[in-house]
Amino acid sequence: MAIKIYRQFKKLIKKKFFLQTPDLLFINKKNKINSCMPNKIIKLGNKNKNKIFYVIKRTPGTGLFSNVLFVLNHLNIAIKKKYIPIVDMQNFTTIYNEPKKIDGNNNAWEYYFKNLSNYKLKDIYQSQKVIFTDNKYYSNFVYDLEKNKKLINLFQKKIKVKKDILRDFKYFKKKIDNEKVLGIHFRGTSYKRSPGHPFPSTKKQMGKIVDNFLKKKKFTKIFLATEEKDYLNFFIKRYGNKIIYLKDVYRSNKNDAFKIYPRKNHRYKLGREIILETMLMSATNYFIFVNSNVSSASIAFNINKRQKRVLIDNGYNSKNQFFAQWLWYFRKLLPDNLWGFKIKLKYI
């Protein structure tokens, strides 16, 4: 009886306090494709006997640019092996999939990007030689996109953003073209508690850093990307009309972006919004950030080739799931000279 109570208590604590993998909005019914063994050549039909197709899948996946990095690592394998790559986020749904089609498409990858080959999934799934990836992120995979020239090259050549997103990017970019802009990615919410991830900056740190850059570099505008509502309000209150941001982006003070559904096509919009913010950050004159897949993608886009980049180095959170939930909050309260967060900047 005591063991049963302990297990129920442990489960409750984990559900209440620990970060959870976002739920899929819906789950596809099991079919022949879903049950295929990964990393083995499988015959699904009689077409294309001289070609080997490499189906990249990740379900449920995580953040959008984490999914992109996963695809890039597998694309690298496909090129080496001379396989034909395609991303399937239709039969293998992700946290960004919607129940209804987006622009006539059920493949969440193709909500945002062109696919990696000219073949259609229905043709591939009638072919003689098909390989499916599994969901593992292998230890020999690249974890930091901005540090790997080969994957940056693949990113720039092979990851093609859809035209409607590019159109909106160009529209918003016009608003900063004649300004001297400081770009900032201010991570909050779940990043404060993510095991093994870089510690995000605090408001105190960010305020001091931005004040110093405004004084020295005379920026006319600040483009802010943040998923935390409190951080946006902090910047607006402190810097007023210098702040530029995308107004329709979903922001919250909770880690609830994938737990609630407050607007039509909400999950699709979450992905679209982070792509726009990432590209706009890449177009600014200076870019201040803490390491993340979003900052890595912004650097990889390299839209402003003269951009100066400044990393805030706060170290890394504990890999222990329990300690990681509290460590950022604890260190935030401490003085700089007693294990609190100091301002450490690295020019990249």
General description of the model:
This protein has 348 residues and is α/β, with parallel strands linked by helices. It has helices at residues 2-17, 64-81, 109-112, 121-124, 149-158, 163-173, 203-217, 229-239, 266-282, 293-301, 321-324, 327-333, and strands spanning 53-56, 84-87, 130-132, 181-185, 221-225, 243-244, 286-289, 308-312, 345-347. A six-stranded mixed β-sheet has the order 6-5-4-7-8-9. Strands 2-1-3 form a three-stranded parallel β-sheet, with helices on one face. The radius of gyration is 22 Å and the shape is globular. The model has no long low-confidence stretch (mean pLDDT 93).
What is the topology?
Elements (H helix, E strand, L loop, with lengths): L1 H16 L35 E4 L7 H18 L2 E4 L21 H4 L8 H4 L5 E3 L16 H10 L4 H11 L7 E5 L17 H15 L3 E5 L3 H11 L3 E2 L21 H17 L3 E4 L3 H9 L6 E5 L8 H4 L2 H7 L11 E3 L1
Parallel strand pairs: 1-2, 1-3, 4-5, 4-7, 5-6, 7-8
Antiparallel strand pairs: 8-9
Which terms summarize this structure?
3-stranded parallel beta sheet; 348 residues; alpha/beta; 6-stranded mixed beta sheet
The shape, in one word, is globular
Question: How many β-strand stretches?
Answer: 9
Regarding quaternary structure, what we see is: single chain
**Proportion of β residues?**
5-15%
Give the strand order, joined by hyphens, for the main sheet. 6-5-4-7-8-9
Described by strand count, sense and barrel closure, the largest sheet is:
6 strands, mixed
SS content category: alpha/beta
Overall helicity: 25-40%
Radius of gyration: 22 Å
Compressed to H and E, one letter per element, the order equals HEHEHHEHHEHEHEHEHEHHE
Number of helices, where a helix is a run of at least 4 consecutive DSSP H or I residues = 12
